[in-house]
Design brief:
By secondary structure, the chain is α/β, with parallel strands linked by helices. Helices cover 37% and strands 20% of the residues. The protein binds zinc ion.
């Protein structure tokens, strides 16, 4: 009896005073946007259980991480990345998501730009069982649903088709999606009218959440940046969802200098009672596909075969080329389009600007691009089309969060978060460290409704990042985009060390999150 009592006492006192991991003496930013304080953070099991002076509280630690001189933050949450897009088909190595972990990122979306799974519960359950390096969360993609119901058709959706899409939204929301994603810039989503999108997206209203938008026009392609921003705002407002302008930017010479105007639209809408936010990556080059960047959308209607037929027909081919020339001008010309990745047949062109390839092929640049597309070499491109001034203006806004838009071939997949810290917080202080941390963690969790993550708070999940402000930086470049970032020392995902002493451990402690 006495032994049992002693054991009971021992257990309870151990629980109160001991932690599995004590992160000791770091400069701790909790995500609130308040300046950092030097203190200790204790983790037990999956949770943060202690924040304060561990010596004073006589906390016993299984393992001590000496964080003297280091910065301790909530694990970053990336609301717009392609790093886990298609995760159900990934190898174990890719599911580890080491490029994200080595930036201090512990949670990512798996469904950007209106794509991603429609059967959210299955993907989240299966990938969690197989193992994930980071937590993932899903948005149900308008593009996914429109393709399921209408294929690549450019026709407006009928009443019955809208109902089918609404049922799929409702189902995905019940299965734990955090909102609806849209990518109206891309075919076939581009064929949907604003009213059609609202009719579909509003099925998520009873569940709340976010309408996340790769908007119809970030430039002057179709309706223009300002009208496109108004459209994204309206879709969220009339659907009853928060609007998030994904990877906000002013793309191309026609809209340079418009960052202030976009932010003003957002501010006015918030003042009228509808929450509008944005996320942003800290680079002046966007990343997309050659056809998405240059082809007019009417040329893509009906899919690949219809496109080939239009290229083969001299009359439509000429019309396509006229518009491609203008799209290239808009983006800054052939010396701003860097070909960065693609299949085996793309190899000879990788790392070259379109200007160079055009010279080699002895064709004008737009014809060169069309020829590559015709041959089925639809490459990824880095398109240098933003100004540093617009990037900084967006960054300073308190409603602009951090994201990577991470995609293959662009250094943002490996380098975004350390780059933002190095370049925009430490070297040239555009924003403060506390604002950076908030924009990359707590603010994203709060906007998306990701519960018990994104803040350093006792009781919250132990997603924690520890980095060295002296060494942190990105190593990836446009020439060598697949280089892991430097300076992140420790990353805990659900209490387990996924990065230890600056090295990835291979631990897959991530979860497939579902909205509650
Ligand atoms: Zn996008």
């Amino acid at each position: 009896m006495i032994t049992i009592l002693a054991l009971f006492l021992a257990l309870t006192t151990t629980r109160a005073d001991s932690v599995d991991v004590l992160i000791k003496g770091g400069l701790v930013y909790d995500g609130s946007g308040k300046p950092g304080v030097v203190t200790d953070v204790g983790l037990r099991g999956e949770r943060i259980v202690f924040i304060g002076d561990a010596a004073k509280a006589q906390v016993k630690a299984g393992r001590i991480v000496d964080a003297t001189g280091l910065i301790v933050t909530p694990g970053f949450i990336d609301p717009h990345t392609h790093s886990m897009e298609g995760v159900d088909r990934f190898s174990a190595e890719r599911r580890k998501n080491i490029p994200a972990l080595m930036q201090g990122v512990t949670t990512v979306t798996n469904s950007p730009d209106g794509r991603g799974p429609w059967d959210v519960a299955r993907i989240q359950r299966e990938t969690e069982l197989k193992g994930l390096g980071t937590n993932t969360f899903a948005m149900v993609g308008f593009g996914t649903l429109r393709s399921l119901v209408l294929g690549a058709s450019s026709a407006p959706a009928s009443k019955a088709q809208i109902d089918s899409m609404r049922k799929l939204v409702d189902n995905a929301m019940r299965e734990g999606a955090f909102g609806v994603g849209g990518g109206l810039f891309y075919a076939p989503q581009s064929y949907a009218s604003t009213e059609e999108v609202i009719a579909v997206v509003s099925a998520a209203k009873p569940y709340g959440g976010v309408y996340d938008s790769h908007q119809r026009d970030e430039s002057s392609y179709t309706i223009g940046l300002m009208n496109s921003t108004r459209e994204a705002i309206r879709i969220g407002r009339e659907s009853g969802l928060i609007t998030n302008i994904g990877h906000v930017k002013a793309l191309g010479v026609d809209v340079w200098g418009y960052a202030d105007s976009v932010l003003r639209l957002m501010r006015e809408e918030r003042a009228a009672g509808h929450m509008v936010v944005a996320d942003q990556y800290p680079w002046t080059a966007s990343g997309t596909g050659l056809s998405a960047a240059l082809l007019p959308r009417w040329a893509q209607a009906g899919g690949r075969d219809s496109l080939q037929a239009r290229i083969a027909n001299p009359a439509t081919r000429d019309r396509i080329l006229v518009e491609m020339r203008d799209n290239l001008r808009r983006r800054g010309g052939d010396s701003t389009l860097l070909l960065i990745n693609g299949g085996a047949n793309a190899k000879p062109y990788i790392g070259k600007y379109l200007k160079q390839v055009a010279a080699e092929m002895q064709m004008p640049p737009s014809e060169t691009a069309l020829e590559l597309i015709r041959r089925g070499i639809d490459m990824g491109v880095a398109s240098f089309n933003m100004t540093e001034a617009d990037v900084e203006t967006f960054m300073k806004d308190p409603y602009v969060m951090t994201s990577s838009d991470g995609s293959g071939g662009h250094p943002r997949l490996y380098g975004t978060y350390p780059r933002k810290i190095r370049r925009y917080v430490l070297d040239k202080p555009v924003i403060t460290m506390e604002r950076f941390v908030q924009s990359a963690s707590a603010q994203v969790a709060d906007v998306y409704g990701i519960k018990e993550r994104g803040w350093l708070k006792p009781g919250y999940y132990a997603d924690v990042t520890v980095f060295d402000p002296k060494t942190i930086r990105e190593a990836a470049t446009y020439v060598e985009p697949e280089k892991l970032s430097i300076g992140v020392r420790w990353v805990f995902v659900n209490g387990q060390a996924a990065v230890a002493e600056g090295q990835p451990t291979g631990v897959m402690a991530g979860k497939g999150l579902r909205k509650r």
